[in-house]
Design goal:
mainly alpha, 2 domains, 3-stranded antiparallel beta sheet, elongated
Length: 193
């Protein structure tokens, strides 16, 4: 075997270059983390609470079944107030003209409430203000969700051809924006006071 000085130098330089690269990247990561510590703390805490809420929901899902019935009953009462002829069969509303709406988990607003509650719990403020945020957010998000379902019922009655678009696209984006709005109202009216 022949000794080659050139290749040995190349290997040594490549090793030191790799270790310098690692040190530079590690230092860059440390700087990034220190500059964004508050954001990273919020994001980590938020993800923890979302995971916790979802885990509780999965474990005790049968105890949350009442939400579908409550949502369907509330929607039925609202439709009655607006004079819409319908019948209700547990969680299915049969509107005049043969349109039916089935209220499932996703229709109850529970997932939007998890997103909101996760943000509230992760936000850096006192426990009392977080509790006030949850107490404010539950009825606010439930009310917004009922407006969504009521409007979907009327879209289904009057414009059934665009029901899918309104349900799956328009209201999904709008609901996200409204959850952010509820969060901002909580920050402005309760946290900053």
């Amino acid at each position: 075997m022949k000794y080659n000085k050139k290749n040995t130098k190349k290997k040594i330089n490549s090793r030191s270059h790799n270790s310098n690269w690692f040190v530079e990247k590690t230092e860059g990561l440390k700087v990034f983390v220190s500059r964004n510590a508050d954001i990273l703390k919020f994001a980590g805490t938020y993800l923890f609470f979302i995971g916790f809420f979802v885990l509780i929901y999965i474990i005790f899902q049968e105890h949350f079944n009442f939400l579908s019935s409550l949502t369907a009953s509330t929607l039925s009462a609202l439709l009655g107030i607006f004079g819409v002829n319908h019948t209700i069969d547990e969680t299915v509303l049969h509107l005049v003209d043969g349109i039916s709406l089935r209220v499932i988990d996703e229709c109850t607003g529970i997932y939007e409430l998890f997103v909101y509650a996760g943000c509230v719990m992760a936000y850096p403020t006192s426990s009392g203000k977080k509790l006030a945020g949850i107490a404010f957010g539950i009825p606010a998000i439930f009310s917004i969700n009922m407006v969504r379902l009521l409007s979907l019922a009327f879209v289904g009655l009057w414009f059934p051809s665009i029901f899918g678009y309104v349900h799956y696209y328009l209201w999904q984006v709008t609901l996200i924006l409204l959850v952010v709005f509820v969060m901002l109202v909580w920050i402005e009216k309760i946290v900053k006071r």
